[in-house]
Design goal:
The structure holds 2 protein chains of 2 kinds. Chain A is mainly alpha-helical. Chain A contains 16 helices and no strands. The longest helix of chain A is centred in the N-terminal third of the chain and has 28 residues. Chain A is globular. In chain B, about 60% of the residues lie in helices and about 0% in strands. Chain B is globular. The chains are: A mainly alpha, B mainly alpha.
Chain lengths: ~375, ~625
């Protein structure tokens, strides 16, 4: 919301988050301030956009390869769009790290925000895997893979270690649906490694992801009381519940080479959770009131599920599977387009809104 | 004073109905209002629209049909005239369906009426002399539990005026009238005016309106905390001492009301026996026993007959006593038994004698699994997202029943030759079994339903892994590592429970014990399958021993059941678990405090009281909190 004109001057170097909320001024030399306000309202959750774009690009790549009647122009367009979005977001975020490092630190400490620090890496992995011109076996791919894997691994060590050692950050307190993003990061990395042909590395990453997925899955399903409260605006993040098994299924498919029983089971689990979420509109109703960047969280889990269904249909060549693939892919594309249009329509709100995507309060017993 | 007390009483959700009752009664004899033919249709028309505006509870048509059937059934023969009473009506935060007051004096209460409906008519007699009410209150406070309980409000979207009117005629004669009406709260269509119930004098109990609000509203389920507060025991069937129930405990209730869903456990037990005897007769390791196939046939036909009988009776219960079924559905343990009929059907399909049919058609599998998927989506979704029914709160060993169905379905599908469907159910079952297993093993402190000492329900732990191992073997075609791992887990759990057999003594028998026999049978069948692969004397001995144990247990259970049914005649005791009241009996001190307040009530107090009611709260101490707030505001 626009704040009345005689607003306080914001000291840019004041790291207090409360000051973020009052960044709007209408001074004449507003440009650097506009940039600063953009930077300050940017947070890792915005990488959901690039996540969705990159996963859509991957979906189109796979679909175009298997169904040649689809226009491959869409795929190239998507990929370049995803590339530009990702690069620009990364630059912006890098600027933020340079100029507003304290805000980044705050994000890192926040129990929901820290998970989205994986998002840039996931997007890069997806970009790499969906790239039209890079062959998985050449050196460039491998170097890029390692460049992107390093942040994932470091974050893993930090985050997963905290789960059972640091008392303030125990999993039972910190677990929230966004924690599955870390799992997805590991699984996507596993898929990338498997595409390169590095089976052991892929298996290592896969098992890392799956073990922690098991723990998170059980903890989240239990819904322990005394856990943190998850803001309603972030309800779209519940879609991550089925994104994780779908990604696991994809990774296993690439590791094994075929869509075998385990991959099928993970795919079915993901499908079941998706249907059960869709059957509960009340869960998501509250969050659909106002547009915010969390709506992008609807898009990429569906894309992962669609990817999975494409692989499944390729393996099991019967009508039910093909129909399923068709339905899920269309839903995914439609939602992607829908969210993109909504973003374009609400672009002002997107860039200027304050990061209220997570409540200022942390876990209850912090 | 009358006016004031009127208002005061009306603060209670119950009160309005009580008042109504009182007024209708009083007016006849006590007040100077004469009976006059009041246009009862007038009231009816007022009420019914408001009733119809009530959203159906979870889409239960029975409720709505009952509402509809109510239309036009109201004859308030005995109800005294309210129409000419000029008492102001007050909106009560009670079941909005029932009363909505349009009193100018207490405007705050009007917001409380969530469901519209101008039942100003109903309010009218609210303004009847309360003194009688208060005396009633005191009187009932002395422990006229019977009347209190019987007229407690359950089916709130029905009108109880007439009921209250009738029941209040006399305190004493009212009791025998209640006999007919006491069960009406549970009846789906209770004839004419017996619309559920009514607010009895018990309604004057100091209940917090805000507590009653969500509870009386039949559109909402009884919160799961209520079940935990009121019941105890490993199967949540024993009433806690300070709780009271809404149906009379001294009489034997109608048979259907006493018929719990856990009787389907019998179907589970018997049909799994049929499968076991079929496997014994046809499998390799036990061929040396020369078991004839007619045992399987006999058992199978018995199971079919049993399932048909039990299902018919339960269907009757659904039709006639829908409220009781609803309460069973919201009971945290009984909900799992809703899976039992479908699991029994799956068992029937698995145990069908080879002489009848060898190849079952594929559509049968889809047909059998469809209700499963629907029920599962609901229950598992609740685990994941439901606030009060989340898994850490409601996890109990009986939840295994909801998970085992997946594996049984997978087993059946795989033996019918299907590929994808069984894998689907196996995956879903495995994922949720994992979560359930971890939660139960953790024995979280927030989880109250795990029995502190052992109980046959623990045998359900054995069910899922044993069936999972068989299902995996059928899916992959051979009893490989995955199946063996599951099988060994099942056997370990079995033995760790069997050696603690001493701890199972002294537990009250109940029909749900039949459900706990099928894990033993399942383990026996899994052993036979295992012995088919790993052939040795040891495994064969294990087969025989486990089958013998299973048969003996079932036989013993059969004998016990027969004894309870015919000798002791208490196979179906009064099902207290479904008759718990919506509100806990208030503590004594708050009881008196409220009473004092009642006496010194003023309109400001009412306003204050209404102001402080909080319909979102689900604490059991709401009343006290309210009182405290009111007193604070008074003193302020």
């Amino acid at each position: 919301m626009e704040i009345p004109s005689q607003e306080i001057h914001i000291k840019i170097d004041n790291p207090r988050s409360s000051s973020n909320k009052r960044k709007k001024t209408n001074l004449a030399d507003a440009e650097p301030i506009v940039l600063m306000s953009v930077l300050s309202s940017l947070h890792a959750g915005y990488f959901r956009i690039s996540l969705s774009l990159c996963s859509q690009a991957l979906l189109w790549k796979i679909m175009v390869h298997s169904h040649t009647e689809l226009p491959s122009m869409v795929y190239y367009l998507l990929w370049y769009l995803a590339l530009t979005t990702q690069v620009s977001l990364c630059f912006l975020y890098a600027f933020k790290c340079v100029f507003l490092f304290d805000l980044v630190k705050e994000e890192f400490v926040h129990y929901i925000g820290v998970n989205y620090l994986y998002a840039p890496s996931i997007s890069f992995f997806l970009l790499l895997q969906s790239a039209p011109m890079i062959d998985p076996h050449n050196v460039l791919y491998q170097t890029l893979f390692w460049i992107f894997a390093v942040p994932v691994l470091t974050l893993d060590t930090k985050l997963y270690g905290q789960w059972f050692t640091t008392e303030k950050r125990f999993l039972s307190i910190m677990a929230n649906p966004a924690s599955q993003v870390s799992v997805i990061a590991n699984l996507v990395a596993a898929r990338g490694a498997a595409e390169m042909g590095w089976k052991e590395c892929a298996l290592c990453l896969f098992s890392l992801g799956m073990v922690h997925y098991l723990v998170i899955f059980v903890t989240l399903y239990q819904r322990l009381p005394g856990g943190n409260n998850f803001p309603t605006t972030l309800r779209p993040v519940f879609f991550l519940f089925f994104a994780a098994p779908a990604t696991a299924s994809l990774a296993w498919n690439t590791i094994c080479g075929t869509f075998d029983t385990i991959a099928k089971m993970l795919f079915f689990l993901s499908l079941f959770i998706f249907v059960s979420l869709v059957c509960r509109p009340n869960l998501l109703k509250k969050s659909i009131k106002r547009f915010n960047v969390a709506w992008w969280a609807y898009s990429f889990p569906l894309t992962f599920l669609a990817l999975d269904s494409v692989q499944y249909a390729q393996e099991v060549n019967d009508h039910v599977a093909s129909i399923l693939m068709f339905i899920i892919s269309s839903i995914s594309v439609l939602i992607f387009l829908g969210v993109m249009l909504l973003t374009a329509a609400n672009s002002k709100r997107l860039l200027r809104r304050d990061p209220v995507l997570w409540s200022a309060t942390g876990p209850k017993d912090k | 004073m009358d006016q004031k007390t009127n208002y005061a009483i009306q603060v209670e959700e119950e009160l309005p109905s009580l008042l109504r009752k009182a007024t209708t009664e009083e007016m006849v004899g006590f007040d100077n209002y004469k009976d006059s033919a009041q246009p009862s249709p007038h009231i009816i028309s007022r009420f019914h629209p408001s009733h119809n505006s009530t959203p159906t509870l979870n889409g239960q048509e029975a409720s709505s049909t009952s509402i509809d059937s109510m239309e036009g059934h109201h004859n308030y023969n005995e109800t005294p005239p309210w129409t000419h009473q000029r008492k102001p009506s007050i909106s009560m935060p009670t079941s909005p369906n029932i009363l909505m007051i349009s009193d100018p004096t207490t405007s705050s209460s009007s917001e409380n009426n969530t469901k519209g409906g101008s039942t100003g008519k109903s309010v009218k007699f609210l303004s009847q002399p309360i003194t009688k009410v208060s005396s009633l209150y005191i009187e009932t406070g002395k422990g006229d539990d019977d009347r209190r309980r019987s007229n407690d409000n359950h089916h709130h979207h029905q009108h109880q005026q007439h009921q209250s009117g009738r029941q209040h005629q006399d305190h004493i004669p009212a009791t025998h009238k209640l006999k007919d009406n006491r069960y009406n709260s549970f009846k789906t269509w209770s004839g004419k005016l017996e619309r559920q119930f009514t607010r009895k004098p018990a309604s004057i109990e100091p209940e917090t309106p805000k507590r009653n609000n969500p509870n009386i509203n039949t559109n909402e389920a009884m919160p799961v905390d209520r079940y935990y507060d009121a019941l105890e025991g490993p199967e949540l069937e024993t009433l806690r001492p300070q709780e009271e129930i809404v149906l009379p405990n001294d009489k034997k209730w109608p048979f259907l009301l006493r018929y719990p869903i856990s009787t389907f456990g019998m179907c589970l037990g018997v049909s799994s026996q049929a499968i076991m005897w079929k496997t014994l007769a046809t499998a390799e390791p036990t061929k040396f026993l020369h078991i004839p196939l007619w045992i399987n046939q006999g058992l199978w036909f018995i199971s079919v007959a049993l399932i048909l009988t039990i299902a018919t009776i339960y269907l009757l219960k659904i039709i006639l006593y829908f409220e009781a079924v609803r309460r069973e559905y919201y009971h945290p343990i009984r909900i799992n038994f809703f899976f039992a009929p479908f699991i029994s059907l799956l068992f029937l399909a698995l145990g069908v004698p080879p002489s009848i049919i060898t190849d079952l058609p594929h559509y049968l599998w889809y047909l059998l699994m469809f209700p499963f998927i629907c029920l599962e989506l609901k229950i598992y979704g609740q685990w994941m997202s439901g606030g009060q029914r989340r898994l850490s709160r409601v996890a109990n060993p009986t939840n295994h029943l909801s998970v085992v169905g997946n594996f049984v379905g997978a087993l059946l599908g795989a033996s019918m030759g299907l590929r994808e469907g069984p894998i689907f159910f196996y995956a879903v079952g495995m994922a949720h079994y994992l979560v359930l297993f971890v939660t139960l093993y953790q024995r979280l402190p927030t989880n109250e339903t795990l029995p502190k000492d052992l109980h046959p329900v623990f045998f359900l732990f054995v069910a899922a892994p044993s069936v999972a191992s068989m299902a995996w073997a059928k899916i992959t075609g051979s009893f490989d590592y995955g199946s063996k791992v599951c099988y060994f887990i099942a056997i370990f759990l079995y033995f760790s429970l069997a050696v603690r057999i001493n701890f199972f003594r002294g537990i009250k028998f109940s029909l749900s014990w039949w459900a706990y026999t099928f894990p033993m049978t399942g383990a026996a069948i899994a052993t036979i399958r295992y012995a088919t692969i790993v052939r040795s004397t040891m495994t064969q001995i294990m087969c025989v021993v486990l089958c013998a144990i299973a048969t003996l247990v079932v036989f013993a259970l059969l004998v016990t059941t027969i004894i309870h049914a015919f000798v002791l005649r208490e196979l179906f005791p009064n099902d207290l678990a479904i008759a718990i009241s919506n509100r806990p009996r208030p503590k004594q001190n708050s009881h008196h405090r409220w009473l004092d307040q009642l006496r010194n009530v003023s309109s400001e107090n009412i306003e204050n009281y209404l102001k402080f009611t909080d319909s979102d709260s689900s604490h059991s101490n709401d009343l006290e909190a309210c009182n405290v707030k009111i007193q604070e505001s008074d003193s302020a």
